[in-house]
Design brief:
- By secondary structure, this protein is of the alpha/beta class.
- The protein has a single domain, classed as Protein of unknown function UPF0759 (TIM Barrel, Alpha-Beta Barrel).
- The chain is 30% helix and 16% strand.
- It contains 11 helices and 11 strands.
- The protein has a 9-stranded parallel β-sheet with strand order 8-7-4-3-2-1-11-10-9. A two-stranded antiparallel ribbon has the order 5-6.
- Helix 8 packs parallel to helix 9 and helix 10 packs across helix 11.
Length: 287
Amino acid sequence: MAARNAAKSKTADVIRVGIGGWNFAPWRDNFYPAGLTQSRELEYASRHLSAIEINSTYHGTQKRTSFAKWRDETPDDFVFSVKASRFATNRRVLAESGESIERFIDSGIAELGPKLGPLVWQFAPTKQFEAEDFEAFLQLLPASVEGVKLRHVLEVRHDSFMSPDYLKLASKYKAATVFTDSPKFPSMADLTADFVYARLMESSEKLKTGYGPKALDAWAQHARTWAQGKAPADLPVIGDKQPARKKREVFVFFINGAKERAPAAAQALLSRLDWEPQEWVPEKKRK
């Protein structure tokens, strides 16, 4: 552990890289060691990546004891982002989401404590931007739960959100906007919070690391630029001027695309950021 900490780059504490979930059958062929029991997959993944986006929370309520278990199985410096309930975001009238938001927030996410990263609110591709209703939704998002600070990320998927009016609202409520490299969804790297959240969806099954070396080099540079509080010059934005800060925490997740390549892509990016995995002890070598 000491060797790992000594080898960390200066940006390791502010750039997190990971995948969505940890129980995916194809990863048992190319990421997890042969014979690893499924009950130890999170333990292994959390020592070879620096973050994981929990996706199961989008589909249904998880138990408070599950969040506590996940917290205890991961290293002290590991972070989970949590995808918010679809029952809160897949609505015709977002202003009526209060009860669903409360149910999700009170489900036990606070058990993650300091390991709780941003909450991701994903909207349907058919959901259009309506300023008044969307602001009413943002007003429902709490700043904390059970003494744990909350950070919110908005994953908007309709082109109507590519608007200065949307950006003003997101900035007003200090909510980050998901940046994606997918041509299927709005792709804007405008900075609307004090952290950055990217979901990369264009991995290829033909490439062992999902993305080629040049692309991974570029994403490493983008992550460093974001971490330094600046905006990458070659990513698309709506606004003319991006707010600068001394630094920003950065989250990069390899999601969808050729999902079987996601762990390799995340590890390749982490390597470029001079992050080293934590020692993991196989079952046979345990005393």
